[in-house]
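Handout, page 2. Input:
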Amino acid sequence: MRRAAARIPGPVLALLACVPGLAALLVLVLCANGIERTTAERSAHRAAAARPAAAPHAAARPHIVPRSAWADGTGEANTAARTPPPPHYDDKVLAVFVHHTDSPNGYDCADAPRIIRYLAAGQIGVRDWDDIGYNFLVDRCGTIYEGRAGGVARPVTGAHTQGFNHRTTGIAALGTFTAGVQVPQAMADAIASLAAWKLGLADIDPRTTVRLTSSNNLSRYAAGTAADLPALAGHDDGYMTSCPGAALSALLPQIRETAARLQGRT
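Output:
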């Protein structure tokens, strides 16, 4: 569609006829303004088209303490603090696996960074992993820590469950949550908020199931098998283990509902 030309009042045209230089100047100004507006409009349109559409059920990102808060010590932390190799990425996160770390529960929350260093040292130094396996860790006060390197908002491939590390995120609850152990509400709420955010980036309902393909025979499913698993799953959903403990497993339905509510779902 052609843009309408700017209209110049008759009296002004008469004046311009008497002052040719002024007429030429005004025409140049009008043209420049028109070009400027057109260029700005096109640039704005291109910028809007380039922006990815927000997921319909995106949740707010919770506060996440960076890994520098725990991977900066000495002694037992040397192994955990070493620079990890470049991370691997998937295209998106379709599911969250919840774990417990099978460590003591009676810690002071200020000690959480030291506990995470100890866990990382075991996984990296003793098991010879490239980095801590969990993508995130949550303490009993509800503080969320970045675990595996690579960027908290990115779909970093973890090392938290056999067969289903791809397209998933591992969240570890610091402690042991077997039958009869009380799971702190702050911890459950933090797991829900983190899961809501990570799954919301791909518009995944935490209450639904997703299809994941097993990558090896050490999981509950043979390599290459497509399995329908909860989008917010316990470690034992994909691997033969008692993790994340009976008490935390019993809370998963409630955590799913909370996460869905945080995504604005009914």
